TrEMBL record:
Signal peptide segment: none
UniProtKB keywords: Hormone, Secreted
Keyword Secreted listed: yes
Gene Ontology molecular function: any one: hormone activity
PANTHER family assigned to the protein according to its UniProt record, in alphabetical order: PROLACTIN-5A1, SOMATOTROPIN,PROLACTIN
Gene name per UniProt: LOC110308482
Superkingdom of origin: Eukaryota
Manganese recorded as keyword: no
Designated name of the protein: Prolactin-like
Biological-process GO terms, alphabetical: female pregnancy; mammary gland development; positive regulation of cell population proliferation; positive regulation of lactation; positive regulation of receptor signaling pathway via JAK-STAT; response to nutrient levels
Length: 174
């Protein structure tokens, strides 16, 4: 099961990196994205350890619950991200397709992680208590540069979270 979720997680991380990089290459030239203050990711408050050593100090159940919360927090933002990008003039179909691919793989990854958690602790009853996403207004601004920056920031957050999930799974796999 760990190999299966590890493969899905690595695939999502790879696809999210491609989507983020492609969006930046297509829409950042001429815009000062790198000079703007980055948006805070909606999952940034989750206490996910940022090093392997710190991850190893956590109980497997704690890491699995963090991964579940992080993955679950992306359900709504991914839907809105696809909707907003689809509404753009000259919609970035390749990038939308990558986000759609992630959106389709996320529930399978989430279910796999829940299965592992139930094996680690059969008494666990994981409820769907995910981080609220309050970023819809930033995606729907009328100023084009701000709109594109919001999409860029959300794609970066997605990729960063995908890397964190993959790192946690690799540590748990050991």
């Amino acid at each position: 099961m760990f190999d299966w979720v590890g493969n899905i997680s690595e695939n999502i991380s790879h696809i999210s990196s491609e989507a983020s990089n492609e969006f930046f290459q297509q829409y950042a030239p001429g815009r000062l994205f790198s000079f703007r203050l980055p948006m805070i990711c909606h999952t940034s408050f989750l206490p996910v350890p940022n090093t392997k050593r710190k991850m190893l100090q956590k109980q497997p159940e704690v890491l699995l619950r963090l991964v579940i919360r992080m993955l679950g927090a992306w359900k709504t933002p991914l839907q809105h991200l696809m909707t907003e990008m689809s509404a753009m003039q000259e919609a970035p179909e390749v990038i939308i397709s990558k986000v759609r691919d992630i959106d389709e793989k996320l529930p399978r990854l989430l279910e796999g992680i829940r299965t592992i958690l139930s094996q680690v602790n059969p008494a666990v009853n994981e409820t769907e208590n995910y981080s609220p996403w309050l970023g819809l207004k930033s995606l729907q601004v009328t100023d084009e540069d701000s709109h594109l920056f919001a999409i860029h920031s959300l794609l970066n957050c997605l990729h960063n979270d995908a890397k964190k999930v993959t790192a946690c799974i690799k540590v748990l796999r050991c």
